[in-house]
Structure formats: C-alpha cells, structure tokens
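Rotation project, supervised by the postdoc (A.L.). Task for the rotation student: set up a whole-complex structure prediction and record inputs and outputs verbatim in this book. Inputs entered:
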Amino acid sequence: MFNRDRWKEILEVLTSNWFRTVLTAFGVFWGILILIILLAAGKGLENGIKADFGDIATNTMFMWTRSTTKAYKGLPKGRDFNFKLEDVQSIRDNVPNLRFISPRNQLGGFRGGGNVVRGIKTGAYNIYGDYPEIINQDPMTITSGRFLNHNDINEKRKIAIIGNGVKNDLYDLDETVLGTYIKIQGVNFMVVGTYKKNSNDGDGEEGQKQIFVPFTTFSQAFNRGNDVGWMAITANDGSSITSLKEDIVNSMKVKHKVHPDDDRAVGYFDLYEQYNRVESLFGAMGFIAYFVGILVLLSGIIGVSNIMLIVVKERTKEIGIRRALGEDPWSIKKQILMESIFLTIISGMAGITFGALFIYGVNAILDANGPVDMFLNPSVSLGVVVAALAILIISGLLAGFIPAQSAIKVRPIDALRTE
Amino acid sequence: MIEIKDLHKSYKMGSNSLHVLKGINFSVDKGELVAIMGSSGSGKSTLLNILGMLDVADTGDYTLDGVPIKDMNETKAAQYRNKFLGFVFQSFNLINYKSAMENVALPLYYQRMPRKERQEKALKYLDQVGLKEWATHLPSELSGGQKQRVAIARAMAAEPKVLLADEPTGALDSTTSYEVMDLIQKINDEGNTILVVTHEEDIAHMCKRIVHLKDGVIVEDKKVKQVRASAYV
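Outputs recorded:
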C-alpha cells in the first residue's frame, strides 16, 4: 500500500494526461458535492424545524382532565374531576419506565389579568406551581440565583423564579432582583432566581414571561387543595411515551372511576408523536438526498470506470511487458484498482472540501442576514463525511474492478503483440 | 538446461487450425549460445514464446533446469518468468515513462527487492552494458542500440537461467547489431545460456549452434564456429 514505486507510478499514469484526468475527476467531484449539499440542506431544514421544538424533552406527554362523557359506576356523565397529588405515585407504581412525572398547577395564561404586582408596576404572567424536576422537561437556563428544590416543596416556601421578561417588566435595569418580593394575586413571594429559555420561535417571548413557585406553596396559597391541574410525563430514553401513554391514561381512568371507553375524559398531548412525525419526514428527506446524491455520484463513477478502461487499453502492451518480466497478475490488478480508488478519493475529497466551503459560505450569509424561518445551520456531520468517504472507496473499487479484470484477461503474449 | 520433447502447437484461425509446431525435440545445455533460424511462419517465435512461458504448448514436455513446466496458472508462470528467464525483444519493449535505471530495476521490483539494493544492482548492470551515464534518461532519449542494451541489462538484472532474445537486432542497423551481439557474446562468455531467434545469417553465425526450423519441424541442428562480433565493431 505505502509503496513508493507504486505511488510514483500511479501519479505518473494519472498525470500523463492531465486534461482527461481532471475531466474524469470532475464527475466524481460533482457527485459528491451534490450529495453533501443535499444532505446539508436537509439538515438545515431539520435544524430549523427542530429549533421550534426548543430544548423541551421530546419524549414527553402532557395530560389533563376534562368532563366525563359516559356514565359509569353510578356516576353521571358530564362530571368534572381533578387529578390528585396521589395520582403521581399511582402512575409511578402502575407504569414502568417513566423518568419524570411533574404535576403542575397554573395561574394566568391567556385568561389572566394583571396578577403580579411589584411596587407600582404590574403585569400578567403565567404562574406555575411546580416540582423541581420540571427543569429537566422544560429546560431553562438559570441566569442568577437558583431554581426550585425539594426543601422549597417540603417547607412550602414562598419563593419564586422569574423569567427575564418578567424581570424586564417589573425591575429597573440596574436593580437587584434576588431577595426582593413580588405580589402574586395578593400573596408575597421572594424572588430567588431568574431564568432564560433558549427558544427562538414565536413562543419565545411568552416563554420568558413565566414565574415558577413551589407546587405545595402554590396549592396552599391559591386554594388548590390536593388538585393537580395537569401533568408533564417523560419516559425513559429507551422507551417511547407514545407506547406508554395508554397505560397511563387507563390507570387514571380506573382511579377516577371513568368509563374505560370514555376517550374524552382525559385529555393529553403527545409531544413525542408529533416529534416522530417530523423525524420520519426528515428520515425520508435524508433518504432522498442520499438516493439522488448517490445516483449523481454513480454517473461520475461510470466515467472513472470508462477512463480506466481506456487507460488499460492504452497500456496493454506495457502490461504485457511487465508480465513478461514477471509481475504477477494480482499486482497489476492492484495497480489498476489503486489508480481508480486514488482518483475517486482525491476528486471526492475535493468535492467534500468544496461542499464544506459552500456550506460555510451559506452559514456566513445566514449569520449576516439574521435567521430565516425553518432553516438553520445547514451542516453535515462527521458521520456523513465518513460515510461519503466509504462510498468513495467502494465506488473507486467498483470503478476499477472491470478495467483491472480486463487488464489481466489479455494473455501476455497477445498483449506484447499489440502496438 | 532446456529439454523439449515432442512439442506440438496449433492456432485456431477461425474454422481452420494452423499447425505451427509439429513435434519439436530439442535440448540446450548450460552455457550454450543457440541461434534459432527460420523464415517467417516457420514457428521460431512460437517456440521461443513457449520456452518463455508466454504461451503454452498443446502437447509435449518442457523441462527448464530440471523443473517440469506445465499446468501453470498465471501467477506461477509470472514467478517462473521472473526467476528463470530474461527477455530481449525486437522492439525493445522498454516502459517509456520510466528511466533506463527504473526499467532495469523492474524485474527486481517484482522480486520485492528493497529499493536501494535494486537501484544499486540496476546501476551495476547498466554499467556492464556501458550506459551508466544514461541511467536517468527516458527510453525516448536513447538511440536504438542503447535501448536494446538497456533491455539486455534489464533481462540480465534478475540473473536468469536462460536469456531469450527474439530478433534482438531486427530493428537495428548492422553496426549497432554487432555491438549488441558483442554484448550478448560477452554475457555468454560468462557462462549464461542464451537463445537468439533471428533470420539473419551473420547474426546466427555469431552463435555457437544454429537450429533451423522449417514448417514447424527442426530441419537442421549444427554446431558452428563462432564469429566474434568484436571483429566488426
């Protein structure tokens, strides 16, 4: 492989007709360039759409109660019911493979008025009563202070973590935030932390204007008793929430005496299913990119194969001489194969490099002109580059195979006779 | 050194078959310098090709230095050619993008000899044929006689048991022909076995033995008094 003479010969052969070599190389260059650009464009679209999902844990469902629509066990239809705090433990006991179950209560939202007051400033925000685990399901960056912890839950501390949007509304620019008090529906909470969410879509503004307080404090302060407004449930990485959600909903139906066929009593939103739908779309797009890219590459490969056949034809006599001098056929075959692989890899590398520069350029333009809807950071991963290299080596082998075979098919005596 | 018994060879030309060698019996001892003569179509080149393992006989036995040559696959034949045989062709058959030294070193390369050793040896043989200063030149920069001398150096580089020359002077004028024959005689003087195919009487008489082929059979096989080529140079 790393034989100086062999490489010297490969270079001599390939450089003996520069123009032809470059033309041939261009076919492969073009094929791999198209492949890389298609994959990068697909990735850019994927990144753009996935950014809309934000950092949220995607293997998650949200579940809430509605009115029953069927009479069951002596209870009438149209009955309202609430999840209770005990339900969390009950789900945990009945359904395995769940990572987080966060009960939540909520104030405000689209119906909320000016519910938060600080001094002479007021604002309307979403107030959540939460457990500390929620930060794993709805990720946010704590910019100062801290997030909720279990002591807050146990001791029902009246503390709040506020979003940057809230801070901007209620505080002056250089004011200290931590340790100050805000009044939520008449109850004072001490601010112990601020957060920022990393979302850049339309909900981004909304996401920064939330306030998190301990679940237990929330329940007591706002008279929720044992009720749970809704739950965010995340499954373990190995299992999908989509396959578990039926068990979860059914366990709730049993617990709250809801008719088993009453599909409308428990409402839920399966984020994972939505996400998967998008995922499979990108899977299909990736497939198309590979398919088209490889087909274009294939025509380049056929070009290489063709030229190698011509090269072999031109060198028939030389090959005859070399065999007369005692070069074994396998060595000749190897020579032709290496020429072909070398040509494919060099031109392919040029294609990959050029593709990378192109993507770099597109990124630079995107960065300069601000974000574009549904298109973000087009890129190809190292894995794709490795895959492309593997494709190149294999195609180089394929391209060289027929010419190499034809090189040793001619008997040396016949090869020597050709002029 | 070479033993041939009842060798037959025919070529298929469309529907006819052309019987080229019709039972050749022939042997060559070590150190001989044999000229194989005959008009074109007499089968002399075919015989040389079979001796050189570039072609295979239909029937008959061929033993080279005690090794029976038959049922060879290409890899094996290549190995034997490399180890046992040196070829000199009428049209030199140098590889035109390699320098004289690289050409001479080729058979050694196929023996997987290390690069440095190979180059030293190639230079040694180029020196023997008087072309050491031309080592880095491409074949296109050499005259016909020089090319043939490079080819001879290449044939000798692997130290073969037998040197096979197919019309080595066929493409050269008489002065250079004699120079080349002088070289061949010198190599023979060192004890190497050489077979020369030729149709030129004067070249044949510079060998020690002449074998006449006609229509695929040996019609005459005689020892001759060798004419030294150096007398003409």
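Student's summary: Chain A has 14 helices and 14 strands.
Supervisor addendum: Chain A touches chain B at residues 4-5, 12, 16, 317-318, 321-331, 408, 411-413, 416 (CB under 8 Å).
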